Structures are given as C-alpha cells and as structure tokens.
Amino acid sequence: MAFCIYALATQDGFLFLDHVNLTFHEFGHIFFGLFGSIAGVWGGTLMQLGIPLVILVYFFMKKDHAGVFFCSFWFGENLLNIAVYVNDARTLVLSLVGGGEHDWNIILGKLDMLRYDHYIAAVLKVLGWGNMLASIVWFLVIGVSERK
C-alpha cells in the first residue's frame, strides 16, 4: 500500500521500480530486434511486460502466493510506466536512454493512431492501477483464507 501512495505522490511518473523495468525494456529491443526492426521497436514493451508474467507463472506453479502477488503488482506498475511513455508519443519531451527514437511515436504512427496517444495512455493507467489494486485485494483475501 505504501508503494501506491508513493506512486500517487510522484510527479514525474518515474518510479524506483522503473529502473529495473528500463533494463528489461532495453534488453527487449536487442532481443526482439533479432527478428526485425518492427519487432525490435515493440520488443521493449513486450519484454517489460513479459518478464513479470513469466516469473508470475513460475510462482503460480510453485503455489507461492506472495510471488504471484508481487509479479502481478509489478505487471500493473509496468503499465503505469508504459502509460507515461505512450502519453509522450506526440509531445516527445521525455528524456530517452541514449537519446534514441521514441518507440510509441513509431508504433502509434505506423498504426495511424498517434492522435490517440493520450487516450491510450489513460486506458493503460487505469488498467495499471486496477491491476495493482486487484493484486492487493487478492493477496489480502488469500492471506485471510489461508489463516483460517
């Protein structure tokens, strides 16, 4: 819950977990870039979301509720980070690693959806917060039911 308060209070939209997410994001460009330039552009976001999901599946198979909770929450937090990036697709004011190209400007531009960047970002933000809050509720319910 403390993380949620921290996330609400942060003005620039970059949370301390995003330093980890950025590493996976950048690796995704390299890895998926092996399959072509379009895959490479999408690869950052795909890897950023894929890593928490893969680890979540591992914890789910081990019946580790705390691990499932953390990875589900982490996935939602990633959606918040991606929302900030998508929201910047037209304005291009975010400082990018290496000053490179803006993934979401390219993605939305190719899809002819650049004018919807703020709407897409808002949906991602709602999904991220919803996922994080649902994760907390689920974990509390599981915790209470396991103590009985």
Description:
The protein is mostly helical and 148 residues long. It has one domain. It is 75% helix and 0% strand. The protein is built from six helices and no strands. It has helices spanning 2-9, 18-33, 37-61, 65-87, 103-110, 117-147. The protein is globular, with a radius of gyration of 16 Å. The model has no long low-confidence stretch (mean pLDDT 88).
List the helices and strands and how they pair.
Elements: H1 2-9, H2 18-33, H3 37-61, H4 65-87, H5 103-110, H6 117-147
Brief rundown of the structure:
The protein is an all-alpha fold and 148 residues long. Helix content is 75%, strand content 0%. It is globular and about 50 Å long.
Helicity range of the residues?
Answer: over 70%
| Overall body shape | globular
Total discrete domains: 1
**Counted beta strands:** 0
Provide the structure class: mainly alpha
Largest sheet: none
The first-to-last residue Cα distance is 23 Å
List the defining traits of the structure above.
0% strand; 75% helix; 148 residues; mainly alpha; 6 helices
